[in-house]
Amino acid sequence: MALSVSASASFQQTTLDNGLRVILREVRERPLVGVWMWYRVGGRNELPGTTGVSHWVEHMLFKGGKRFGKGEITKEISRRGGALNAFTWIDCTAYFETLPADEIDLSLAIESDRIYDTRIEPDEAEAERTVVISEREGSENFPEFWLREEVQSVAWREHPYRLGVIGPKSDLRAMTRENLYDHYKRYYMTNNATLVMVGDFSSSELLDKIHAEFDQHPAGPPPPPLQIEEQPQTGERRVSVSRPGPTHYVMLAYHAPPGSHVDAAAMVMLSALLGGASSPIAWGGARGLGRSSRLYRALVDGEIASSMSAGYELTVDPYLFAIDATLRNGVEPARAESAIVQEIGRIQREGIPADELRRTKRQLHAQVVYSLEGVTNQGFALGFMDLVAGDAAAWETFPAALQSVTPEDVQRVASIYLVDKQRTTGWFMPDNVDAR
Amino acid sequence: MATVTGSALRPARTQFENGLVLLHNRAAANPSVVIRALVRAGASRESPGEHGIGGLTGRMLRQGTHNIGKSALAEELDGMGAGLSVDVGYALVSVSIKVLSGDFRRAMEILAELLRRPIFPTDELDRLKGQILTDLKEMDDNTRIVSERTWRELAYPAAHPYHRLTVGDAASVQAATRDNLTNFHSAWYGSTQATLIVVGDVSIAETRTAVETNFGDWPAGRIERVEATLPASDLPARQVREVALAGKTQADVAIGLPTLERTSPDFYPLSFANHILGRMYFMGRFGEKVRDQQGLAYYAYSELHGSYGRGGWLMRAGVNPRNLEEALSSIDAELKAFLTEGPTPAEQADGVSSLLGSLPRQLETNEGAAAVMSEIELYDLGLDYLERYPDIVRSLTREQVTAAARRWILPEHLVTAIAGPPRA
To answer: Is the ipTM beyond the 0.90 threshold?
Structure first.
């Protein structure tokens, strides 16, 4: 029995008695189905000492439960030509399978098994410790990783967003199997999850199957709400990282509103104006856009940086608006920083011409269209917007809101959020002589 | 079990009077189009001492043409929401535009302008060189790239284009002149060296008209097949080289050797062997052993480069230096076991079903379809390739797969390159 059913032209949403949110969208062009299981747990739910636990638990959900033994989930999907993976982010942990539509039952069985019956065997947890550490070490080989981690760690005083997702090695070495299992039991439950399925199926028939698989699971005690509220930043914070590296990198990170905030659409627009558009609601899209953007022109055409990016992401709690630049050999960070601040200042003082805004809106519209190609991407967009906006319908209403942003909106949010006292500035300074 | 129902891709092929080939496939699920020009003007076309000229020429296409300046081009593309990307490979330069279907015609005009009428402004060339020099510094600091580059230097002779990365090196990039680029462009950018791939929400009639209008009078380039210009490549001696990079935590490993051409009859059984060794399930046998069982690496997989000339078979892994010897020993043992026994019957069956079952997924996006269409045209696979493909895969036997692996993956010629932190 469903507690509530709502429908729009583009998807059907149901909440089961046990709290599992179910979002279904029929797309019949190809014999495929994209399945996403979203859990509302990630870096924001972690504490020092066990930072990285959500991500490690994600790894363990491939290691076997009651109906699927170690490695069997991967093998069952793979031998049918399907693809599967998972990711952990500051706000969520999500698992997906894309597979032939006639194998839909397999996917339901896997996700049903995962939600309560993952074993997390001690020896398997131990073997995975070095894999997770190795994942971190792969990232450590890049200077940008060190800079971002440092900037994140000082941009907040309280909020767990400062801890990131992968976790420091000290936590990864010290965490126990019990830490993993406790975390799993606290956050993995039907009433903390959303199942999204997009593809070649009949929603009514599929809903019967979902009931058959998931109704057996009782709701759990609601996960503890996040009590921490970050106090406003009152002055610029600066960090520098000195390590061997090929060149200088600069990162400017400003505190920004969450995805559900009324200013979110204008922030996305501001980010596209500064650094080129990417889809705010899904992965994917076209490469090579944004060469007429303000920072591309100032930094790359201006021979200050070899590459740059500006990003505002939709998140549950207030996060960061971040600008990164890889500096050309011989360029000092102060020059790049000043060029970035100058461009922001221009928008704050002068606003933006209507034709530039029109061009940017078109970029965003196109990137959203491109990013919704295929059942996997559509499933992502529905689940992601359900998570960050609290309503999957935002996968359509948010892109529409982007088109209503005015020049005044952009100027206003630039003036409110991209101000010095809300900024953390980071410089990566290569300490090997040949890189200077 | 999975079938290939619904995966059929039936591109229409048109050859125009000037030799230009168009492959078109209509897909209306997303209101967008991918337009891709494959020009046989990659690094394999470079003269000795001109390393990086192919890549520079490709990257300079968007820096200004006779009829549109770089800045105006950037504004127009952004105003359409069109993504323009240039990828430089050994055989090809691939110039792609992803665009909303309503802007298809203008995108074709722009593509023609870029390919046919670039002016290679000197100031833009200097600017791009500065950018590439920073990229090269970053590449020198990237353990994955350094391991592959080192592997290439050992696996292929110096005269072979596969001996080096396509980007060139600091000296060759600095030495490049506008004349080098215009000469390279005149020689290799022409209708006989190009294939246009168009996939998405646009009709064949509209596509043909746009191609005829914009490319109908495109003169031919030099007529020379890429494979004919590749020098021979003897197999290297078995060897190991380590490159130490300061400040790194993880060592990246590349192990492999030159193997066969895409058109070799052994390509399918060897590709299947690679699927079992380093791809299927979760990175194949290598992933299962080194990551899942031993926990030594986050990634461990293998790849087969099917192209013109002897493409490489390459196994790659990222390992903590403390675990390097153990990981290398496990990789070696897995390879030996496979060469001795071949795939198990279960692996053989799963290999077939996974490859065939994945086809609809691969063809789901316009980019995915464009990739398959490119392969069909570049290697003369025939427009019915995807209809024949299931039989090709199903007909492979364990014996054929094992024999092909033994013929081409020769342990006595394996080159191992490691890039990571200095080791005691």
So the answer is: yes
